[in-house]
Design a protein that fits this description.
Helices cover 40% and strands 21% of the residues. By secondary structure, it is α/β, with parallel strands linked by helices. It folds into two domains: 117 residues, Rossmann fold (3-Layer(aba) Sandwich), CATH 3.40.50.2300; 95 residues, Winged helix-like DNA-binding domain superfamily/Winged helix DNA-binding domain (Arc Repressor Mutant, subunit A). A five-stranded parallel beta sheet has the order 2-1-3-4-5, with helices on both faces. A four-stranded antiparallel beta sheet has the order 6-7-8-9, with no helix packed on it. It starts with a strand and ends with a strand.
Length: 228
């Protein structure tokens, strides 16, 4: 497995590399010290994971993430000193799969990397072709592809796992804690606000505004109504 870190502080890159060497020796670490070089490496090397700093010397990490999302759904973890709520919100809404604030524990970083990678694995589901969820939404559960109104929809692994969880439990209210556990993993300690951010992203990509498919049950969780 190959992980790309886009980070201009050599001490951070060296420490992350050391953590992988000791705890996850099968990982090969690629490194870029600028945003533009990082984008080029994503295109050229197709890494399995990207760890992205926001404060880069040439362009903003947000711009790097935006460019990556134009051509790739590779999992991206933002690793940054920027802890303001608006930065976290912007990072997740821009397509990041997780957001970790410096200083950080390297064991925690590795656990979060593993949790994000688990969400890229296939979800077993009956059927070999697109399953018609409703008149507008179709999902190929084998190849993890989604169509809305017969047009392909590009989802990140986290968005896809959230959608399939809701679809599999159609008509049920899925509580926040279950969503967090099944999509983000048992060890994840993020806020429920992250779920709301991903639901907003899903609704936008599925053209579900005002929402008719994914409904909020205030204080409880979300349900997939099924109608379009």
């Amino acid at each position: 497995m190959r992980v790309l870190i886009i980070e201009d502080e050599k001490s951070i890159t060296d420490a992350v590399n050391l953590a992988f060497e000791f705890r996850w020796p099968g990982v090969s670490l690629l490194a870029a010290t600028t945003g533009r070089k990082g984008i080029d490496l994503v295109k050229a090397e197709s890494p399995d994971m990207v760890i992205l700093d926001l404060n880069l010397p040439d362009i903003s990490g947000f711009d790097v993430l935006k460019k990556i999302r134009e051509f790739s759904d590779v999992p991206v973890i933002i690793l940054t000193v920027r802890s303001e709520d608006e930065d976290v919100l912007k990072g997740l809404e821009s397509g990041a799969d997780d957001y970790i604030i410096k200083p950080f524990n390297y064991l925690t970083l590795l656990a979060r990397v593993k949790a994000v990678l688990r969400r890229t694995e296939a979800i077993p589901f009956a059927g070999k072709h697109y399953n018609e969820v409703n008149d507008r939404l179709k999902i190929d559960f084998v190849n993890q592809k989604v169509k809305i109104d017969n047009q392909p929809v590009k989802l990140t692994p986290t968005e896809y796992h959230l959608l399939t969880l809701l679809v599999k439990t159609k008509g049920e209210v899925v509580p926040f804690h279950r969503i967090m556990e099944e999509v983000w993993g048992k060890d994840y300690s993020g806020e429920t606000e992250n779920i709301r951010i991903y639901v907003r992203r899903l609704r936008k990509k599925l053209h579900d505004t005002p929402p008719s498919m994914i409904a909020n049950r205030r204080g409880l969780g979300y349900t997939f109504k099924g109608s379009a």
